[in-house]
Sequence to fold (549 residues):
Amino acid sequence: MKILIGLSIVVVLLIGVVLALPFLIDLNKYQGQYKPIIEDALNRKVQLQDIRLTIWPRIGARVAGFAVLDDPSFGSAPFASLSSLDVGVKLMPLLSGKVEVEEITLHQPVITVIRNKNGVLNASTIGRKGVAVPEKPSRAPIPSTEGPLKILALLAVDQVSIDGGKLTYRDLSAAKPTEYVVQDMELLLQDVRLGRTPRLHFGSLVQPFNLPVKLDGSFGPLREAMDIDAISFELAVGKTDFTITGNADGNDANIYITSPVINTANLPVSLPLKKPVDMKNFQIAAEVKGQGVKLNTLSFQLFDGQIKGQGKLIAGSDTPPFKGSVTVQGVQLGPALNAVAETPISVSGTAGADLSLQGIGFSMPDLTTALEGTGHMMVKDGKIEGVNLLQEVVSALKVAGISLDNAKATAFSAIETDLLIKQGIINVQRLLMDSHDFQATGGGTIGFDQRLNLLVNLNLSQDLSQKIAGASPVMKIALKEGRLNLPLAITGTAQAPSYGVDLKGVSGKVQEQVKKKVEEAVGGLLKGTKKPEDLKKEGEELLKGLFGR
Fold:
């Protein structure tokens, strides 16, 4: 009995000693040893209000009032802070003198990422030793591979989690400063150690879009050089799901992104569309080398057709330079144009195009000034709804008694043209349009501001030419090889186009025909093949044809 009592007293004393350890051991006096290590790894000054030993729910330490100060060139406020940080270690390795971190939990972290007026991120120098922030870089510095993830891998952490928190991105380089907030963050990162493949879960709500974001997957195995053989994630952005795979080698990576369908109404970016559209079977294959992005494949289905592209881009600025090519096959032009703009005139048909483009920036002002390119476009078996070009011609010629099939549409079998894009203007070159009643050729310009300046020559069919010539003697004189060739000018804007027939051109052709008749008559008189009486008769017939009497 005495032995049992003695053992009980010893156990109670041991438990008491263990419970008293957090109060007996002051870990704050060791700050001078571990703070320089953390500051050297992060290349940032850190602040610690208090650090204490914990024995429940696991042995470890709790850090309160932890903050990582910002780069001095950005200010004195914290770059990152959290209410507390819990670090738990494994008991059995600890008894044998080894420290193995089991879990790290960050409570309510607050991170502020700032892009200054020169376009430099305050996060760009984390972990970068001896690298000065450029005063006015052409683009943001390449991120360092010496980041927190490598530190965690070297520590061999079983689990890292975030309990709540907020990430703020503030862009001061834009003409109108913007701010985005990732709030209600939850993160669970498991098995972070060299040679292993960590698993990641992340969830948040992005403001001001009120957009939920969820990311699940794995990446690894981890190495000291931070090369990652396999990346595999499932990303949900609102109602849109993406699959992301690839690999990484330091600052270089190969990325593959796919999505079964993307509805533009669910994207957190504003697109110049009047109606939301669905992009199906979306695929991207890209190579990232530093800040250079090579787009090997871009492919998706849109308006019952296929869009394919490739190109190169230099990231890191608000106006990144880019160069690439786009191929369009089988797109239904009517729904496509209706999604871009609502105009009184719409064009239907099956469209295809090949374009080569280059520019700087993606905003409309940037595209207007810097976008350049060439291409070729064709539309087959379509209709121009809202205008009948032949009716516009007949009205301009003031010809009565001509009936047309459709007074508000122009059907065509093909429209084909070359394009030259420069300084906000699309130059339409070698335009060819085939229709049942006419063939049109010509060219002109279409502005990014939708201004039109086109001039086409309508070569009417023999049947329609004879009808017009029968109703107008003047047009009969203008016939050439049984056809009328009429110049048509299209001006105004896409919202309010106007059409006009160049009557000077028509009268010029009449004069040309009269001149030809006179030259033939005078020539015949001089050669003796015609008599004055013949000239009188031919002149009467010519005047009768012109004036109808």
Summary: The chain is about 25% helix and 45% strand. The first strand starts at residue 46 and ends at 47.
